[in-house]
Amino acid sequence: MNDRTFFNLSAITNRVQQILQPYIGKLFWVKAEISSGRALYGGGLLRLWSDDIYARIMAERETPASKKAVLALGKAIAAGTRPPPEPALVKLLPFEIGAFWKLRVDRLSFFRSYLVLNSIYYLSHENILDLDLSVEAVSAPYELIPDSGDLKRSQFLLMRYENPERARQALNRFQDAYLPDDKKEITAETAVDSPSLFKLEDGWLAYKLIGRHIAIVFESPDPESARTILQKNESNLLEKGGDHER
């Protein structure tokens, strides 16, 4: 049996701090127990993303000393990197729609994988939107606070594919898998049609093919709200440069 040496955790922490001291004073966006959008810490686990780096650092047992060491390691790993630019697709979303609907920016997510989508808003155990690394997608809820004070929420998804035909095929796949009782063939002419609306158990669903983009609203309280959210996002998409063919 090999001899093993055990070190006191505080001694390890002190040594880590000595090694990383040049970096600790630098500005860094990790915030303990709070997601800054680029880092998340909780229960001894730090997940961070900076530039082309993704890292996970986990303490075997969380203590104030281990937490300090984990965050110090995160600072060192991200030192010298630049925060990634905000994805262009995110900038296309309107922050307000009408007088009351507002985008929950703190719940906004950019992704390319259906596995990530399912962790945000579960759709299916299969890739029914044909997502992969060539596709950009963003998800965020819009919230409505009417005079009655009764909060209402609609989930919004926007996907950008390589070309209009790929988007059309993906929407057909979604239609067949998610709405099997409402058979509808999506054609190139669908883009000029009004949004397709469906009444489901959890509210109204609406989607529209917009060139190489697919926009979908889930759990809308009424068809008018679903249509309004889609129309405003379509108008932003066209006004801000996300035109049909790009």
Please tally the helical runs, counting DSSP H or I stretches of 4 or more residues: 5
Tally of separate domains: 2
What's the story with the biggest beta sheet?
8 strands, antiparallel
Low-pLDDT residue intervals, each spanning 5 or more residues: 1-10, 20-37
Mean pLDDT across all amino acids: 80
Radius of gyration: 23 Å
SSE pattern, N- to C-terminal: HEEEHEEEHEEHEEEH
Q: What is the first-to-last residue Cα distance?
A: 64 Å
Query: What share of the residues does DSSP label as strand, in percent?
Result: 25-35%
Helix content: 25-40%
Oligomeric state as shown = single chain
Q: What is the structural class?
A: alpha+beta
The strand count comes to: 11
Shape descriptor: globular
Gist of the model:
With 246 residues, the chain is an alpha+beta fold. The protein has helices spanning 9-24, 64-78, 114-120, 164-178, 223-239; strands at residues 39-42, 45-50, 53-58, 96-97, 101-103, 109-111, 136-144, 152-160, 196-200, 203-210, 213-220. A hairpin with a 2-residue loop joins β10 (203-210) and β11 (213-220).
